[in-house]
């Protein structure tokens, strides 16, 4: 049995839709998890609920007692993380007000000969006001065999290495609480294709970096290695 709707909603609001363990903003991918599993008699009440991001949710649920690698998340520990975070959220009501940008590559196909990845960038407006428009600048190592449609391209230097910068913008109004896939956006896409050999050589050393601008909020800047960005 999942949690009743009102319990789920309350847990999401009390956590500011952030993970109670790592505090990452979860947006649409946050989970309301049972601290004590239902199979062990855990109830569907707020006292047994915790918000977790996908990564922490998998970590909390996948400990195998027959192969005890790592440190298990105990119900008491999860409860303590949650209570600490709820208390923090209650005393810092202003903190959920920021923008959230999720940047990653999704594998479209993956064999030894062809790995094809498409960039997915999702923007969530967690400000109280609507944002009128946005601009994204995203930089890729110059050797990456990119295919893209309808972006402004320029060549720049980053970490003293050659990079390609792609830029895109929109004047669309994004309302408070709304999530939008800004890449791919309408007909725009950014993809790259490599084989096994190239993939293993490039994935750790090279970074993707971005800057994201909106009219009424601070610029969001970020970077990740190719390795950290891939999802299958
Ligand atoms: Zn987490």
What does this structure look like?
The protein contains five helices and 13 strands. It is of the alpha+beta class. It has two domains: 87 residues, no CATH class; 133 residues, Immunoglobulin-like (Sandwich), CATH 2.60.40.10. The strands form three sheets. Strands 3, 4, 6, 9, 10 and 13 form a six-stranded mixed β-sheet that branches. A five-stranded antiparallel β-sheet has the order 7-8-5-11-12. The structure holds zinc ion (ZN). The site of zinc ion (ZN) has 8 residues, from helix 2.
Number of helices: 5
Structural class: alpha+beta
Top-tier CATH class of the largest domain? Mainly Beta
Predict the CATH topology of the largest domain.
Answer: Immunoglobulin-like
* First-to-last CA distance: 29 Å
Mean pLDDT: 85
Tell me what the CATH architecture of the largest domain is: Sandwich
> How many domains comprise the coordinates?
2
Major sheet details: 6 strands, mixed
Helix content: 10-25%
**What fraction of residues sit in β-strands?**
35-45%
Give the oligomeric state of the chains in this entry, treating copies of one chain as homo and distinct chains as hetero. single chain
Please count the beta strands (DSSP E, at least 2 residues each): 13
Could you give a quick summary of the protein structure above?
It is built from 5 helices and 13 strands. It is an alpha+beta fold and 232 residues long.
Structural descriptors:
single chain, 232 residues, alpha+beta, Immunoglobulin-like, 2 domains, six-stranded mixed beta sheet, 5 helices, 41% strand, binds zinc ion
